[in-house]
Amino acid sequence: MLLTITTTHEPATDLGYLLHKHPDRVQDFQQSFGTATVFYPEATESRCTAALLLRVDPIRLARSRAKNAPDFTLAQYVNDRSYAASSLLGVAMADVFSTARSGRCKSRQELADSAIPLEIALPVLPCRGGVDFARRVFEPLGWSVYAEPIALDPQLPDWGDSRYLRLRLTGVVRLADALSQLHVLLPVLDESKHYWQGPDEIDKLLHSGEGWLAAHPDAAVITRRYLGRSSALTRTALARLAEVGDDVEAAVETTADEDAQQTEEKRVPLNRQRHDAVHQVLLDAGARSVIDLGCGPGQFLQRLVKTSAFTRIAGCDVSTRSLQYAARRLHLDRLSERQAERIELFQGALTYEDPRFAGFDAAVLMEVIEHVDPSRLRALEHVVFEAATPGTVIVTTPNREYNCLYEGLTGARHPDHRFEWDRGQFTEWSDRVAGAHGYRVERRGIGELDETHGTPTQMAIFTREEGTDD
After folding, report:
1. 93: buried, middle or exposed (CB in 10 Å: 19+, 13-18, 0-12)?
2. Which CATH architecture has domain 2-196?
3. Each residue of 277-335: pLDDT tens digit?
4. CATH 3.30.1610.20 in the chain, residues?
5. pTM exceeding the 0.70 threshold for the entire prediction
6. The Methyltransferase type domain covers which part of the protein (predicted)?
7. How are strands ordered across the β-sheet holding 34-43?
């Protein structure tokens, strides 16, 4: 099976630096199921192409299967895995281009951090859902998609098309993002993996999907397919994605038999409950101007924009990539001048004073503080409560006590969480902050209440005391 990556960014041969593979060399990398070879069919200043060729050894693949894997007898050796892009190619790519996927490039770090023109080609790609599904998963990520079905037999057109596509993606994308997207989406399109999946697959998905998956309109479908339609793993993965405050539908497709057994009403995703709660607090507070601090890819901003009561809206995030997603979500390039004046997006760090944070009736920190190192929390408190001084501050954060109720979850709900507080710790922190900066505080729970462990999300509403000096 073959994958090619082409760029026209000049000098195009810098692709070799980004991939950490020299254009003048042919390199082999042994995998448990075959051999991956990297070579460059073309390498000029104006255009450079890197190719990853994976030669699968059916016998080694069969021997690498887990002992408890189903035995498909002859199908273990006679199948499409030798030529069709699948999870095998995703695993090999993740291994061979591991440093590139991390976004590290000591000699060209600025380039590694930048979006560059890329063309990715897969001559044979299994895709359950055909051309429409390929477009559905890649186009929201900024790719232009060319997908052509491959006929079962070109000599017998009446037989129709196979489930395979020729796929070419073009776009201006950061290389590390492109590789991470492929790592997730190759097995999603094929809807098959060559290895047994356990709870650690959720961490792999969150790691590869960081910065783009949660903002994808089909995040739930991608998650479900990536995890082999395992209901338990999918529920846990969607719950953890929702904790980041992004757009994830936490509904799991079920089979007809499961539908017959399911008696309880469909639950509202926690993320939606959180957005509903914060939105209502803002309306009850009479806020007209709102800043979303740590807005991520902008799903809550989209909710604010649809509410006419908010006449001035701003979103701030430390990640420029998240802000790019937010701009696309809000269709800023299509807004009229009058509409655009109502919305502002800017990059900034919440631990440093910034005059752009000030002047708002309300500030929202939704699932943000747990991403800040504990040693930097005092700096955030100063920036928000003492320097910016909004009339209302709404903070939500996970309740650590509830984590034991998530099946398969060990440790924090997201790999980037620096800490997670129980209810007592959150009470202590919010009382101290309110008293130190002239606010009164009210705490509420969000999500399904467990008598022992509380709610999955805890929320503090800080209201500035009247007569408090700025």
Report:
1. buried
2. 2-Layer Sandwich (3.30)
3. 999 999 999 999 999 999 988 889 999 999 999 999 999 998 887 888 888 888 888 87
4. 2-196
5. no
6. 291-393
7. 27-31, 34-43, 48-56, 2-7, 115-126, 161-174, 144-151
